[in-house]
């Protein structure tokens, strides 16, 4: 036991034991083996993640010291976060939670969150430019509007501004499910890493909005986090907002591990190391599959591995409308052939909740053993 503790202290930039034990409800800790495999490599130190959401109470015990002062990007002052369900606090805690209040610990506890209050396309665009100009290496937008149109030109220009300056932009895919041609913005903007949702059995979440631009997936059902008052909320909620926030935390880990790696290569690495779920190969709900932080940190990813996120963005820079549907083969499989993927407080159906509670523990236990491998 002593030898294992010494090994963790030697391997980790910041001792993993400095962070309290996460709550048992945070099942994705076991999926991703954060304490055992990931944090001995990196805890996200030195990376700032801009959370484009609602104003956050930066003095909440689970956030104190990890969240920078709020900046308002809206034309008017919005209601405080607690009066709107605490969405901003919930997303911030998933990324940098310190565990000192309720035990809510985030994916990258040594990263910092820059909270930018923005609730419209125009404010999102301003937030993207502000985050880029103020040192954020990752931008999380766990919001969206239903649309039948391409990405708003003003918003697309702001995304491009960030991409051109080495920032990874992570966006939630939406919570509308499959309804005809419904799509979600800014998830449909070229250059963003759009993330869909998975349930507790590592299957595509039925409420996740599909799209040809969805590239990865992460936990979306009963993920757990704090509300605007700092209380832990676990059961009965689902949405792609936490999926995007968790993925933003993973991106922060990769950027901390590889500080000189361009954003383009960071995204390539995330996609190439995802674990295929749902339909074989790429699909429009989960993209290339479950994001896996440990594999993204340690795998050898060829420079030839496909990167449809940046290919699609590059097409917009060339003045053409991109073909947004990627190959159904995974990036890892394709590179191997060449060289040898609104609000998160969405109530699920009663049936779904019962299934998740009764069957979840059995399936999660069986599947977690192989998710990070």
How many strands, which pairing sense, and closed or not: the largest β-sheet?
7 strands, parallel
What's the number of helices? 12
Q: What portion of residues belong to β-strands? A: 5-15%
Tertiary shape: globular
Mean pLDDT: 85
Assembly level? single chain
Largest sheet, spatial ordering of strands:
2-3-1-4-6-8-9
Uncertain segments: 1-17, 334-370
Straight-line N-to-C gap? 24 Å
Helix content: 25-40%
Q: What order do the helices and strands follow? A: HHHEEHEHEEHEEEEEEHHHHHH
Structural class computed from helices and strand pairing:
alpha/beta
Number of strands: 11
What is the C-alpha radius of gyration, as a whole number of Å?
19 Å
Task: Describe, in short, the structure shown.
This protein has 373 residues and is α/β, with parallel strands linked by helices.
Identify the notable features of this structure and list them briefly:
373 residues; 12 helices; globular; two-stranded antiparallel ribbon; 11 strands; single chain; alpha/beta
